[in-house]
Specification:
By secondary structure, the chain is α/β, with parallel strands linked by helices. It contains eight helices and seven strands. Helices cover 37% and strands 19% of the residues. The protein has a seven-stranded mixed sheet, with helices on both faces. The longest helix has 22 residues. The structure holds S-adenosylmethionine. The site of S-adenosylmethionine has 24 residues, from helix 1, helix 3 and strand 2.
């Protein structure tokens, strides 16, 4: 989910200068911004991805929309399955790392399906609290750990994990190379990483871009190779993301006049247009250490 400040009314015009990639925010500023954004908008996405009976997905992403997908809840489950389709066979008890785990929904579902131990890393304490309580409610507290920290400086030893995945989070990271270097460092030799994210070949066209650092497919692929990943591959799924999500969110917000609704309508319309023009995409990157 792309971020901006919660003073969205001050942003959005093409005249807002993009933060220079070199002026990487300090850790404190970054936490403040990311936490502020999610504490402002999390409930909107939780509601958007809930079923009519109140069941929540535990995920905060755009989802993957098939012909017959009618809810964001199902779309997010489709995306999760599409990402994990790229996981190789794993030994019993394999150690996995989720980077930018949000509120834990993807980890809980994976832990139910596979005999794995998961460590979930996120920059925002409130996301981790929600993730922990979700895991506990599902009786998975011992199978999933939640750790506060940054993807660009991970609090884990070298060669700790058998696989890692990162769903719709890497666009937040001001230093993509640091993230990939760290991701590589904490994986065991031969381990797989899966990175699903929004991609963009021209960030100047993104209406609300403060705190968002989209990369093109070419740049992301090159950065993964530079970090030492091999067998890098890409699956392009943007045709099943932007248009149906925008239509769903528009219908959901029909009649609502709040700031969140207004903000997301503008953001998603902008993204759909950029996707139509071939500037924006949604991609799943796979690499091996
Ligand atoms: C759009 S949400 C996606 C959450 C989850 N992966 C999902 O699909 O439901 C992005 C998450 O990345 C986290 N995040 C942003 N910057 C981060 C960083 N530098 N290190 C770790 N997590 C970060 C945010 O706090 C947020 O929980």
């Amino acid at each position: 989910m792309p971020s901006s400040s919660n003073q969205f009314a001050d942003e959005g015009s093409a005249s807002v200068p993009m933060k220079n990639q070199c002026e990487i925010e300090t850790l404190h500023e970054m936490i403040q911004q990311v936490a502020g954004f999610y504490n402002w908008s999390r409930n909107y996405w939780i509601e958007l991805a809930s079923l009519p009976d109140g069941t929540t997905s535990g995920m905060l992403n755009f989802g993957l929309w098939q012909e017959d997908t009618t809810t964001l809840f199902d779309a997010q489950e489709n995306l999760r399955r599409e990402v994990f389709r790229h996981l190789p066979a794993l030994a019993s008890g394999a150690a996995g790392l989720e980077i930018g785990c949000g509120i834990g929904g993807a980890a809980v579902r994976l832990a139910k399906e596979r005999d794995v131990h998961l460590t979930c890393l996120d920059l925002v304490a409130e996301q981790l609290e929600l993730g922990r309580s979700l895991a506990d409610r599902h009786g998975l507290g011992a199978q999933i750990d939640f750790t506060l920290g940054s993807s660009m400086s991970m609090p884990f030893d070298d060669s700790s994990f058998d696989f890692s995945y990162c769903i719709e989070s890497s666009f937040h990271y001001p230093d993509n190379q640091a993230f990939l270097r760290e991701n590589q460092r904490v994986l065991k030799p031969g381990a797989t990483t899966l990175i699903a994210d929004i991609t963009c070949s021209d960030n100047s066209r993104v209406g609300f871009r403060r705190g968002n650092h989209y990369r093109s497919v070419t740049d992301m692929t090159a950065a993964m190779l530079t970090a030492g990943f091999t067998d890098v591959g890409v699956t392009r799924i943007g045709d099943r993301v932007f248009k149906p999500l925008q239509a769903f969110a528009e219908a959901f917000g029909h009649g609502r006049r709040d700031k969140l609704q207004k903000y997301w309508r503008l953001v998603l319309r902008n993204y759909e247009k950029l996707w139509e023009e071939g500037v924006m995409g949604y991609d799943i990157f796979v690499g091996r250490k």
